[in-house]
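C-alpha coordinates
________________
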Amino acid sequence: MPSRDTHDVGGGASGAASDSVNVAASGKGLATNKVGTFAGAILSIASIAPAYTTTASMGLIVAAVGLKMPALLIAGFIPMFLAAYAYREFSAETPDCGASFTWSARSLGPYVGWMAGWGSVIAVVIVLANIAAVGAEFFYLFVGRLVHSESIATLGDNKLANIVTTLVFLAAAGWAASRGISSSERVQYVLVGFQLVVLLLFAGIALAKAMTHDAPSGLSFDIDWFNPFTGLTLGAFAIGLIGSVFMYWGWDTALTLGEECKDPKRTPGRAGLLSILTVLCTYLLLAVALMWFAGVGDTGIGLSSPETTNNVFGALAKPVMGGAGELLLFLAVLVSAIASLQATFLPAARAMLAMGTFKALPERFATVHPTYQVPRFSTAVAAVVAGAFYTITALLSEHVLLDTIAALGIMICWYYGITAFAAVWYFRKHWFSSARDFVFKLLFPLLGGTMLLVVFVISVRESLKPEVGSGASIFGIGLVFYLGFGILALGAVLMLVQRLRDPEFFRGKTLPRAVSGDPMPVPAEPHLSSL
Protein backbone atom coordinates (compact mmCIF):
# COMPACT_ATOMS: atom_id res chain seq x y z
CA MET A 1 0.00 0.00 0.00
CA PRO A 2 1.40 3.45 -0.90
CA SER A 3 2.70 5.51 1.97
CA ARG A 4 0.78 8.52 3.13
CA ASP A 5 2.49 11.88 3.51
CA THR A 6 1.38 13.17 6.89
CA HIS A 7 2.37 16.81 6.71
CA ASP A 8 0.50 18.80 9.36
CA VAL A 9 -1.16 21.86 7.84
CA GLY A 10 -2.84 23.10 10.99
CA GLY A 11 -6.19 21.38 10.60
CA GLY A 12 -6.21 19.85 14.08
CA ALA A 13 -7.53 16.44 15.03
CA SER A 14 -11.15 17.09 14.12
CA GLY A 15 -10.17 18.61 10.81
CA ALA A 16 -8.04 15.60 10.01
CA ALA A 17 -10.95 13.28 10.75
CA SER A 18 -13.25 15.26 8.48
CA ASP A 19 -10.65 15.21 5.74
CA SER A 20 -10.31 11.45 6.03
CA VAL A 21 -14.02 10.96 5.39
CA ASN A 22 -13.95 13.05 2.22
CA VAL A 23 -10.73 11.48 1.02
CA ALA A 24 -12.19 8.01 1.32
CA ALA A 25 -15.34 9.04 -0.53
CA SER A 26 -13.60 10.61 -3.51
CA GLY A 27 -11.15 7.81 -4.27
CA LYS A 28 -8.34 10.17 -5.26
CA GLY A 29 -8.58 12.51 -2.28
CA LEU A 30 -10.69 15.20 -3.98
CA ALA A 31 -13.54 16.96 -2.18
CA THR A 32 -16.96 15.43 -2.82
CA ASN A 33 -20.55 16.71 -3.13
CA LYS A 34 -19.43 20.27 -3.91
CA VAL A 35 -20.50 21.21 -7.45
CA GLY A 36 -24.07 21.44 -8.76
CA THR A 37 -25.30 21.79 -12.36
CA PHE A 38 -25.36 25.59 -12.39
CA ALA A 39 -22.01 25.88 -10.65
CA GLY A 40 -20.49 23.36 -13.08
CA ALA A 41 -21.83 25.35 -16.03
CA ILE A 42 -20.41 28.57 -14.56
CA LEU A 43 -16.98 26.97 -14.13
CA SER A 44 -17.09 25.70 -17.73
CA ILE A 45 -18.11 29.13 -19.06
CA ALA A 46 -15.29 30.64 -17.00
CA SER A 47 -12.86 28.25 -18.69
CA ILE A 48 -14.23 29.14 -22.13
CA ALA A 49 -13.90 32.83 -21.16
CA PRO A 50 -16.16 34.42 -23.82
CA ALA A 51 -14.71 37.93 -23.47
CA TYR A 52 -11.08 36.79 -23.64
CA THR A 53 -11.77 34.27 -26.42
CA THR A 54 -13.63 36.79 -28.55
CA THR A 55 -10.94 39.43 -28.41
CA ALA A 56 -8.15 36.89 -28.96
CA SER A 57 -9.54 34.68 -31.72
CA MET A 58 -12.40 36.24 -33.67
CA GLY A 59 -9.83 38.18 -35.66
CA LEU A 60 -8.20 34.90 -36.70
CA ILE A 61 -11.52 33.56 -37.99
CA VAL A 62 -12.33 36.75 -39.88
CA ALA A 63 -8.86 36.79 -41.45
CA ALA A 64 -9.60 33.32 -42.85
CA VAL A 65 -13.28 33.51 -43.81
CA GLY A 66 -14.36 37.17 -43.75
CA LEU A 67 -18.12 37.65 -43.52
CA LYS A 68 -18.63 33.90 -43.05
CA MET A 69 -17.62 34.15 -39.40
CA PRO A 70 -21.14 33.30 -38.06
CA ALA A 71 -21.24 30.25 -40.35
CA LEU A 72 -17.89 29.05 -39.01
CA LEU A 73 -19.04 29.53 -35.41
CA ILE A 74 -21.96 27.22 -36.12
CA ALA A 75 -19.72 24.78 -38.00
CA GLY A 76 -17.29 24.67 -35.07
CA PHE A 77 -20.11 24.16 -32.62
CA ILE A 78 -21.48 21.05 -34.34
CA PRO A 79 -18.55 18.63 -33.78
CA MET A 80 -18.01 19.99 -30.27
CA PHE A 81 -21.69 19.48 -29.46
CA LEU A 82 -21.68 15.95 -30.86
CA ALA A 83 -18.48 15.10 -28.97
CA ALA A 84 -20.09 16.45 -25.81
CA TYR A 85 -22.40 13.45 -25.82
CA ALA A 86 -19.40 11.11 -25.70
CA TYR A 87 -18.24 12.93 -22.59
CA ARG A 88 -21.72 12.89 -21.12
CA GLU A 89 -22.16 9.14 -21.58
CA PHE A 90 -18.74 8.40 -20.15
CA SER A 91 -19.32 10.68 -17.17
CA ALA A 92 -22.73 9.16 -16.47
CA GLU A 93 -21.18 5.69 -16.13
CA THR A 94 -17.70 6.39 -14.71
CA PRO A 95 -17.18 9.94 -13.44
CA ASP A 96 -13.42 10.51 -13.33
CA CYS A 97 -11.26 13.61 -13.14
CA GLY A 98 -8.95 12.13 -15.78
CA ALA A 99 -11.77 12.44 -18.36
CA SER A 100 -10.21 11.95 -21.83
CA PHE A 101 -7.17 10.15 -20.41
CA THR A 102 -9.08 7.68 -18.23
CA TRP A 103 -11.90 6.95 -20.65
CA SER A 104 -9.68 6.57 -23.72
CA ALA A 105 -7.25 4.28 -21.87
CA ARG A 106 -10.10 2.04 -20.71
CA SER A 107 -11.59 1.86 -24.19
CA LEU A 108 -8.66 2.00 -26.61
CA GLY A 109 -5.68 1.02 -24.48
CA PRO A 110 -2.93 2.72 -22.47
CA TYR A 111 -0.98 4.27 -25.35
CA VAL A 112 -4.01 5.97 -26.90
CA GLY A 113 -5.16 7.00 -23.43
CA TRP A 114 -1.79 8.51 -22.58
CA MET A 115 -1.71 10.55 -25.79
CA ALA A 116 -5.27 11.75 -25.21
CA GLY A 117 -4.26 12.76 -21.69
CA TRP A 118 -1.15 14.51 -22.97
CA GLY A 119 -3.19 16.43 -25.55
CA SER A 120 -5.71 17.57 -22.93
CA VAL A 121 -3.05 18.60 -20.40
CA ILE A 122 -0.68 20.39 -22.76
CA ALA A 123 -3.54 22.22 -24.49
CA VAL A 124 -4.67 23.57 -21.12
CA VAL A 125 -1.14 24.52 -20.14
CA ILE A 126 -0.65 26.44 -23.40
CA VAL A 127 -3.97 28.24 -23.12
CA LEU A 128 -3.11 29.24 -19.56
CA ALA A 129 -0.15 31.12 -20.97
CA ASN A 130 -2.35 32.67 -23.66
CA ILE A 131 -5.03 33.77 -21.19
CA ALA A 132 -2.50 35.26 -18.79
CA ALA A 133 -0.90 37.23 -21.65
CA VAL A 134 -4.26 38.69 -22.71
CA GLY A 135 -4.98 39.50 -19.06
CA ALA A 136 -1.65 41.32 -18.79
CA GLU A 137 -2.39 43.34 -21.93
CA PHE A 138 -5.84 44.40 -20.75
CA PHE A 139 -4.55 45.13 -17.25
CA TYR A 140 -2.29 47.83 -18.68
CA LEU A 141 -4.98 49.04 -21.07
CA PHE A 142 -7.46 49.40 -18.23
CA VAL A 143 -5.06 51.10 -15.82
CA GLY A 144 -3.67 53.34 -18.54
CA ARG A 145 -7.11 54.55 -19.63
CA LEU A 146 -8.19 54.94 -16.01
CA VAL A 147 -5.31 57.28 -15.14
CA HIS A 148 -5.12 58.78 -18.65
CA SER A 149 -1.57 57.55 -19.24
CA GLU A 150 -0.76 56.33 -22.73
CA SER A 151 2.64 55.08 -21.58
CA ILE A 152 0.96 52.71 -19.11
CA ALA A 153 -1.70 51.67 -21.62
CA THR A 154 0.98 50.55 -24.09
CA LEU A 155 3.09 48.63 -21.55
CA GLY A 156 1.36 45.44 -22.68
CA ASP A 157 3.22 45.81 -25.99
CA ASN A 158 6.56 45.94 -24.19
CA LYS A 159 7.92 42.39 -24.39
CA LEU A 160 9.70 42.39 -21.03
CA ALA A 161 6.78 43.98 -19.16
CA ASN A 162 4.33 41.65 -20.88
CA ILE A 163 6.29 38.50 -20.00
CA VAL A 164 6.85 39.50 -16.37
CA THR A 165 3.20 40.47 -15.84
CA THR A 166 2.02 37.27 -17.53
CA LEU A 167 4.15 35.22 -15.13
CA VAL A 168 2.71 37.12 -12.15
CA PHE A 169 -0.84 36.43 -13.37
CA LEU A 170 -0.06 32.73 -13.74
CA ALA A 171 1.42 32.52 -10.26
CA ALA A 172 -1.53 34.33 -8.67
CA ALA A 173 -4.13 32.20 -10.48
CA GLY A 174 -2.31 29.00 -9.63
CA TRP A 175 -2.27 29.98 -5.96
CA ALA A 176 -6.01 30.77 -6.06
CA ALA A 177 -6.80 27.45 -7.76
CA SER A 178 -4.92 25.68 -4.96
CA ARG A 179 -7.30 26.96 -2.29
CA GLY A 180 -10.09 24.49 -2.96
CA ILE A 181 -12.98 23.99 -5.38
CA SER A 182 -15.56 25.84 -3.24
CA SER A 183 -13.61 29.10 -3.22
CA SER A 184 -13.20 28.87 -7.01
CA GLU A 185 -16.93 28.34 -7.45
CA ARG A 186 -18.00 31.36 -5.37
CA VAL A 187 -15.65 33.78 -7.11
CA GLN A 188 -16.71 32.57 -10.55
CA TYR A 189 -20.38 33.50 -10.06
CA VAL A 190 -19.40 37.17 -9.89
CA LEU A 191 -16.69 37.12 -12.55
CA VAL A 192 -18.68 35.20 -15.18
CA GLY A 193 -21.87 37.14 -14.54
CA PHE A 194 -20.07 40.47 -14.94
CA GLN A 195 -18.37 39.59 -18.22
CA LEU A 196 -21.56 38.21 -19.79
CA VAL A 197 -23.54 41.32 -18.88
CA VAL A 198 -20.88 43.62 -20.37
CA LEU A 199 -20.64 41.54 -23.54
CA LEU A 200 -24.39 41.69 -24.02
CA LEU A 201 -24.27 45.45 -23.46
CA PHE A 202 -21.48 45.83 -26.03
CA ALA A 203 -23.36 43.70 -28.58
CA GLY A 204 -26.59 45.62 -27.99
CA ILE A 205 -24.94 49.02 -28.55
CA ALA A 206 -23.07 47.82 -31.67
CA LEU A 207 -26.25 46.33 -33.16
CA ALA A 208 -28.24 49.45 -32.39
CA LYS A 209 -25.67 51.62 -34.18
CA ALA A 210 -25.52 49.24 -37.15
CA MET A 211 -29.29 49.10 -37.53
CA THR A 212 -29.56 52.89 -37.43
CA HIS A 213 -26.75 53.24 -40.01
CA ASP A 214 -24.48 54.85 -37.41
CA ALA A 215 -21.66 52.33 -38.01
CA PRO A 216 -18.48 52.65 -40.12
CA SER A 217 -18.96 49.35 -41.99
CA GLY A 218 -21.87 50.45 -44.16
CA LEU A 219 -23.00 46.81 -44.30
CA SER A 220 -26.54 45.54 -44.46
CA PHE A 221 -27.49 42.35 -42.65
CA ASP A 222 -27.26 39.28 -44.89
CA ILE A 223 -28.51 35.81 -43.98
CA ASP A 224 -25.73 34.41 -46.21
CA TRP A 225 -23.31 35.19 -43.36
CA PHE A 226 -24.63 31.96 -41.79
CA ASN A 227 -24.13 29.76 -44.91
CA PRO A 228 -20.81 27.81 -44.85
CA PHE A 229 -21.35 26.27 -48.30
CA THR A 230 -20.67 29.37 -50.43
CA GLY A 231 -17.62 31.53 -51.00
CA LEU A 232 -15.09 29.46 -49.01
CA THR A 233 -12.06 27.40 -50.03
CA LEU A 234 -11.29 24.21 -48.12
CA GLY A 235 -8.11 25.69 -46.65
CA ALA A 236 -9.87 28.85 -45.47
CA PHE A 237 -12.69 26.79 -44.02
CA ALA A 238 -10.21 24.58 -42.10
CA ILE A 239 -8.27 27.52 -40.64
CA GLY A 240 -11.49 29.29 -39.67
CA LEU A 241 -12.77 26.09 -38.13
CA ILE A 242 -9.63 25.76 -35.99
CA GLY A 243 -10.36 29.15 -34.46
CA SER A 244 -14.02 28.28 -34.08
CA VAL A 245 -13.32 24.99 -32.30
CA PHE A 246 -10.96 26.82 -29.97
CA MET A 247 -13.68 29.29 -29.04
CA TYR A 248 -15.85 26.55 -27.53
CA TRP A 249 -13.02 24.78 -25.81
CA GLY A 250 -13.34 24.63 -22.02
CA TRP A 251 -16.93 23.37 -21.75
CA ASP A 252 -15.54 20.01 -20.59
CA THR A 253 -14.20 21.52 -17.36
CA ALA A 254 -17.41 20.38 -15.67
CA LEU A 255 -16.69 16.83 -16.82
CA THR A 256 -13.33 16.79 -15.03
CA LEU A 257 -15.12 17.70 -11.79
CA GLY A 258 -17.38 14.62 -11.85
CA GLU A 259 -15.98 13.18 -8.63
CA GLU A 260 -16.58 16.54 -6.92
CA CYS A 261 -20.16 17.00 -8.17
CA LYS A 262 -23.31 16.60 -6.07
CA ASP A 263 -24.72 14.09 -8.57
CA PRO A 264 -21.62 12.66 -10.31
CA LYS A 265 -23.58 10.68 -12.90
CA ARG A 266 -25.82 13.48 -14.18
CA THR A 267 -24.49 16.88 -13.11
CA PRO A 268 -21.29 16.99 -15.22
CA GLY A 269 -23.02 16.20 -18.53
CA ARG A 270 -25.84 18.65 -17.90
CA ALA A 271 -23.43 21.39 -16.88
CA GLY A 272 -21.25 20.86 -19.96
CA LEU A 273 -24.19 21.01 -22.38
CA LEU A 274 -25.66 24.07 -20.65
CA SER A 275 -22.36 25.92 -20.90
CA ILE A 276 -21.72 25.17 -24.58
CA LEU A 277 -25.26 26.20 -25.62
CA THR A 278 -25.00 29.44 -23.63
CA VAL A 279 -21.70 30.30 -25.26
CA LEU A 280 -22.99 29.51 -28.77
CA CYS A 281 -25.76 32.09 -28.39
CA THR A 282 -23.32 34.64 -26.97
CA TYR A 283 -20.82 34.18 -29.80
CA LEU A 284 -23.37 34.41 -32.59
CA LEU A 285 -24.72 37.64 -31.15
CA LEU A 286 -21.22 39.10 -30.82
CA ALA A 287 -20.17 37.94 -34.29
CA VAL A 288 -23.09 39.65 -36.00
CA ALA A 289 -22.65 42.78 -33.90
CA LEU A 290 -18.91 43.03 -34.58
CA MET A 291 -19.17 42.44 -38.33
CA TRP A 292 -22.19 44.62 -38.86
CA PHE A 293 -20.58 47.49 -36.96
CA ALA A 294 -16.92 47.30 -38.02
CA GLY A 295 -16.97 45.28 -41.24
CA VAL A 296 -14.25 42.84 -42.25
CA GLY A 297 -11.94 45.21 -44.09
CA ASP A 298 -8.20 45.43 -43.49
CA THR A 299 -8.06 49.17 -42.83
CA GLY A 300 -9.25 51.37 -39.98
CA ILE A 301 -11.21 49.36 -37.40
CA GLY A 302 -12.13 46.62 -39.88
CA LEU A 303 -11.89 43.18 -38.33
CA SER A 304 -9.14 42.13 -40.77
CA SER A 305 -6.88 45.08 -40.02
CA PRO A 306 -3.71 44.04 -38.15
CA GLU A 307 -4.52 46.14 -35.08
CA THR A 308 -8.04 44.76 -34.75
CA THR A 309 -7.12 41.15 -35.53
CA ASN A 310 -4.66 41.05 -32.64
CA ASN A 311 -7.10 42.57 -30.15
CA VAL A 312 -10.72 42.93 -31.25
CA PHE A 313 -12.07 44.66 -28.16
CA GLY A 314 -8.94 46.77 -27.74
CA ALA A 315 -9.67 48.34 -31.14
CA LEU A 316 -13.48 48.49 -30.99
CA ALA A 317 -14.28 49.28 -27.36
CA LYS A 318 -14.15 53.07 -27.71
CA PRO A 319 -15.82 53.34 -31.16
CA VAL A 320 -18.75 51.26 -29.92
CA MET A 321 -19.13 52.23 -26.25
CA GLY A 322 -17.34 55.55 -25.87
CA GLY A 323 -14.78 56.45 -23.19
CA ALA A 324 -16.60 55.17 -20.10
CA GLY A 325 -17.83 52.09 -21.92
CA GLU A 326 -14.31 51.38 -23.12
CA LEU A 327 -13.12 51.14 -19.53
CA LEU A 328 -16.01 48.83 -18.70
CA LEU A 329 -15.20 46.50 -21.61
CA PHE A 330 -11.49 46.45 -20.80
CA LEU A 331 -12.39 45.51 -17.24
CA ALA A 332 -14.69 42.76 -18.53
CA VAL A 333 -11.90 41.21 -20.61
CA LEU A 334 -9.52 41.49 -17.65
CA VAL A 335 -12.12 39.83 -15.42
CA SER A 336 -12.69 37.17 -18.08
CA ALA A 337 -8.97 36.37 -18.14
CA ILE A 338 -8.79 36.19 -14.34
CA ALA A 339 -11.86 33.93 -14.16
CA SER A 340 -10.60 31.70 -16.93
CA LEU A 341 -7.12 31.39 -15.44
CA GLN A 342 -8.48 30.16 -12.14
CA ALA A 343 -11.02 27.79 -13.71
CA THR A 344 -8.67 26.48 -16.40
CA PHE A 345 -6.17 25.25 -13.83
CA LEU A 346 -8.83 22.80 -12.63
CA PRO A 347 -8.94 20.36 -15.59
CA ALA A 348 -5.17 20.38 -16.13
CA ALA A 349 -4.36 19.62 -12.51
CA ARG A 350 -7.04 16.93 -12.25
CA ALA A 351 -5.98 15.21 -15.46
CA MET A 352 -2.42 15.03 -14.14
CA LEU A 353 -3.77 13.77 -10.80
CA ALA A 354 -5.53 10.90 -12.59
CA MET A 355 -2.47 10.12 -14.69
CA GLY A 356 -0.34 10.03 -11.56
CA THR A 357 -2.87 7.89 -9.71
CA PHE A 358 -2.82 5.23 -12.43
CA LYS A 359 0.98 5.52 -12.82
CA ALA A 360 0.90 7.08 -16.28
CA LEU A 361 2.93 9.93 -14.73
CA PRO A 362 5.35 9.85 -11.78
CA GLU A 363 3.65 9.11 -8.47
CA ARG A 364 4.26 12.66 -7.24
CA PHE A 365 1.40 13.83 -9.49
CA ALA A 366 -1.03 11.63 -7.54
CA THR A 367 -0.82 13.78 -4.40
CA VAL A 368 -3.60 16.02 -3.06
CA HIS A 369 -3.55 18.60 -0.30
CA PRO A 370 -5.13 17.13 2.86
CA THR A 371 -7.03 20.28 3.81
CA TYR A 372 -8.00 21.89 0.50
CA GLN A 373 -8.39 18.52 -1.26
CA VAL A 374 -6.90 19.74 -4.53
CA PRO A 375 -3.86 18.52 -6.50
CA ARG A 376 -1.51 21.33 -5.55
CA PHE A 377 1.62 19.78 -7.03
CA SER A 378 -0.02 19.30 -10.43
CA THR A 379 -1.34 22.86 -10.29
CA ALA A 380 2.15 24.18 -9.59
CA VAL A 381 3.60 22.16 -12.46
CA ALA A 382 0.96 23.56 -14.83
CA ALA A 383 1.81 27.12 -13.78
CA VAL A 384 5.57 26.64 -14.20
CA VAL A 385 5.30 24.94 -17.60
CA ALA A 386 2.81 27.55 -18.85
CA GLY A 387 5.16 30.34 -17.79
CA ALA A 388 8.14 28.73 -19.49
CA PHE A 389 6.14 28.06 -22.66
CA TYR A 390 4.94 31.65 -22.92
CA THR A 391 8.38 33.11 -22.30
CA ILE A 392 9.95 31.00 -25.05
CA THR A 393 7.21 31.53 -27.65
CA ALA A 394 6.97 35.26 -26.93
CA LEU A 395 10.66 35.55 -27.75
CA LEU A 396 10.20 33.53 -30.98
CA SER A 397 7.10 35.26 -32.34
CA GLU A 398 5.85 38.83 -32.35
CA HIS A 399 2.26 37.60 -32.56
CA VAL A 400 2.38 34.60 -30.26
CA LEU A 401 -1.35 34.70 -29.46
CA LEU A 402 -2.36 34.01 -33.07
CA ASP A 403 0.08 31.11 -33.34
CA THR A 404 -0.96 29.46 -30.09
CA ILE A 405 -4.67 29.72 -30.90
CA ALA A 406 -4.12 28.04 -34.27
CA ALA A 407 -1.99 25.36 -32.58
CA LEU A 408 -4.55 24.80 -29.84
CA GLY A 409 -7.18 24.02 -32.43
CA ILE A 410 -5.03 21.10 -33.59
CA MET A 411 -4.64 19.75 -30.05
CA ILE A 412 -8.32 20.15 -29.23
CA CYS A 413 -9.39 18.21 -32.33
CA TRP A 414 -6.86 15.53 -31.33
CA TYR A 415 -8.03 14.67 -27.84
CA TYR A 416 -11.73 15.46 -28.29
CA GLY A 417 -11.74 13.26 -31.38
CA ILE A 418 -9.99 10.41 -29.55
CA THR A 419 -12.52 10.63 -26.72
CA ALA A 420 -15.44 10.54 -29.17
CA PHE A 421 -14.11 7.39 -30.89
CA ALA A 422 -13.32 5.87 -27.48
CA ALA A 423 -16.99 6.29 -26.50
CA VAL A 424 -18.15 4.53 -29.67
CA TRP A 425 -15.97 1.49 -28.92
CA TYR A 426 -16.52 1.46 -25.15
CA PHE A 427 -20.32 1.36 -25.51
CA ARG A 428 -20.35 -1.10 -28.44
CA LYS A 429 -22.51 -3.61 -26.57
CA HIS A 430 -25.25 -0.96 -26.25
CA TRP A 431 -25.35 0.41 -29.81
CA PHE A 432 -28.70 -1.14 -30.59
CA SER A 433 -30.14 -1.53 -27.09
CA SER A 434 -32.50 1.40 -27.65
CA ALA A 435 -33.02 4.39 -29.92
CA ARG A 436 -31.44 6.60 -27.27
CA ASP A 437 -28.33 4.44 -27.04
CA PHE A 438 -28.00 4.33 -30.83
CA VAL A 439 -28.05 8.14 -31.07
CA PHE A 440 -25.98 9.09 -28.02
CA LYS A 441 -23.55 6.15 -27.77
CA LEU A 442 -22.93 5.53 -31.47
CA LEU A 443 -24.25 8.11 -33.93
CA PHE A 444 -23.37 11.41 -32.22
CA PRO A 445 -19.89 10.40 -30.97
CA LEU A 446 -19.03 8.78 -34.32
CA LEU A 447 -20.08 11.85 -36.31
CA GLY A 448 -18.34 14.22 -33.90
CA GLY A 449 -15.13 12.17 -33.88
CA THR A 450 -15.09 11.89 -37.67
CA MET A 451 -15.56 15.63 -38.13
CA LEU A 452 -12.80 16.40 -35.65
CA LEU A 453 -10.48 13.90 -37.35
CA VAL A 454 -11.02 15.54 -40.74
CA VAL A 455 -10.38 19.00 -39.30
CA PHE A 456 -7.28 17.70 -37.51
CA VAL A 457 -5.74 16.26 -40.70
CA ILE A 458 -6.48 19.37 -42.78
CA SER A 459 -5.26 21.65 -39.99
CA VAL A 460 -1.93 19.85 -39.63
CA ARG A 461 -1.41 20.08 -43.39
CA GLU A 462 -2.24 23.78 -43.45
CA SER A 463 -0.07 24.50 -40.38
CA LEU A 464 3.03 23.53 -42.36
CA LYS A 465 2.60 26.73 -44.38
CA PRO A 466 4.57 29.69 -42.95
CA GLU A 467 1.74 32.13 -43.70
CA VAL A 468 -0.66 30.42 -41.28
CA GLY A 469 -1.10 32.29 -38.00
CA SER A 470 1.35 35.14 -37.53
CA GLY A 471 3.59 34.12 -40.43
CA ALA A 472 6.45 33.05 -38.16
CA SER A 473 8.41 29.99 -39.32
CA ILE A 474 11.40 27.82 -38.47
CA PHE A 475 13.36 26.25 -41.36
CA GLY A 476 10.54 27.24 -43.71
CA ILE A 477 7.86 25.41 -41.72
CA GLY A 478 5.15 27.42 -39.96
CA LEU A 479 5.53 27.93 -36.21
CA VAL A 480 1.93 26.74 -35.81
CA PHE A 481 3.01 23.23 -36.91
CA TYR A 482 5.68 23.06 -34.20
CA LEU A 483 3.30 24.38 -31.54
CA GLY A 484 0.49 22.03 -32.57
CA PHE A 485 1.54 18.74 -34.09
CA GLY A 486 5.15 19.10 -32.91
CA ILE A 487 4.15 19.28 -29.24
CA LEU A 488 1.86 16.26 -29.70
CA ALA A 489 4.85 14.36 -31.12
CA LEU A 490 6.91 15.44 -28.11
CA GLY A 491 4.23 13.77 -25.98
CA ALA A 492 4.92 10.46 -27.71
CA VAL A 493 8.58 10.74 -26.71
CA LEU A 494 7.70 11.54 -23.09
CA MET A 495 5.28 8.61 -23.09
CA LEU A 496 8.10 6.22 -24.03
CA VAL A 497 10.30 7.72 -21.30
CA GLN A 498 7.55 7.14 -18.72
CA ARG A 499 7.10 3.58 -19.99
CA LEU A 500 10.78 2.91 -19.31
CA ARG A 501 10.50 4.43 -15.83
CA ASP A 502 7.33 2.62 -14.82
CA PRO A 503 5.77 0.18 -17.33
CA GLU A 504 2.90 -0.92 -15.06
CA PHE A 505 0.31 1.41 -16.61
CA PHE A 506 1.36 0.52 -20.16
CA ARG A 507 0.94 -3.18 -19.39
CA GLY A 508 -2.68 -2.51 -18.49
CA LYS A 509 -2.25 -3.36 -14.81
CA THR A 510 -3.36 -0.07 -13.21
CA LEU A 511 -6.07 0.89 -15.73
CA PRO A 512 -7.04 -2.18 -17.78
CA ARG A 513 -9.07 -2.01 -20.98
CA ALA A 514 -12.78 -2.39 -20.42
CA VAL A 515 -16.23 -2.14 -21.95
CA SER A 516 -19.35 -0.51 -20.60
CA GLY A 517 -20.42 -2.23 -17.40
CA ASP A 518 -16.95 -3.27 -16.24
CA PRO A 519 -16.02 -1.95 -12.77
CA MET A 520 -13.71 1.04 -12.52
CA PRO A 521 -10.45 0.35 -10.65
CA VAL A 522 -10.23 2.41 -7.47
CA PRO A 523 -6.92 3.51 -5.92
CA ALA A 524 -6.27 1.71 -2.63
CA GLU A 525 -5.35 4.90 -0.82
CA PRO A 526 -4.90 8.54 -1.94
CA HIS A 527 -1.58 10.32 -1.45
CA LEU A 528 -1.69 13.39 0.77
CA SER A 529 0.87 16.18 0.67
CA SER A 530 0.98 19.80 1.78
CA LEU A 531 2.22 20.76 -1.70
Remarks:
- The first helix runs from residue 12 to 26.
- The beta strands are 367-368, 473-474, 477-478, 527-528.
- Residues 31-504 form a domain with the Amino acid/polyamine transporter I fold (CATH 1.20.1740.10).
